[in-house]
Specification:
Length: 144
């Protein structure tokens, strides 16, 4: 009995490798997005902490420092939001690449499955034919 051999196995392996690479790229992009979001949270926490600390202060230097800090926080927040938008665009591009890789891989996997089922059917037919031959030989030998 011959072993099952999928002619496009090497191509399938390459497609699987490409898919894993694309998955890794998406993961990297999501990690960048998460880092930016964490930085935004830290800035928000700092803003709240300073606002709470300065609440009710009448000292002019403190008020001026808070104002400068608020300007700095607003600038940092704006930059981080721009970075986040860029990161999200990059993530979407990588997801599209992954989607294409998955389609190609799934198509080959389906083709392999079909070929394997055909192979199993062929094996069953061959085995049934042999069983019939053996049965007919036994019947013929009993008649003699």
């Amino acid at each position: 009995m011959k072993k099952f051999n999928f002619e496009l196995e090497e191509v399938l392996e390459v497609r699987n490798f490409e898919q894993k690479q694309a998955e890794a790229e998406v993961a990297k992009c999501l990690n960048v997005e998460n880092q930016i979001n964490e930085n935004l949270k830290k800035i928000a926490q700092q803003y709240v902490a300073v606002k709470t600390l300065m609440k009710g202060s009448k000292n002019f230097d403190d008020i001026r420092s808070q104002s400068q800090f608020n300007n700095l926080v607003a600038f940092q927040k704006e930059n981080l939001l721009k970075e986040l938008a860029q990161a999200q665009i990059e993530t979407q591009k990588k997801r599209e690449i992954l989607k294409e890789c998955m389609k190609k891989t799934q198509a080959l996997e389906k083709m392999k499955e079909i070929k394997f089922n055909e192979y199993k059917e062929e094996i069953k037919k061959t085995e049934n034919k042999r069983i019939e031959e053996i049965s007919s030989i036994k019947i013929n030998s009993q008649n003699i």
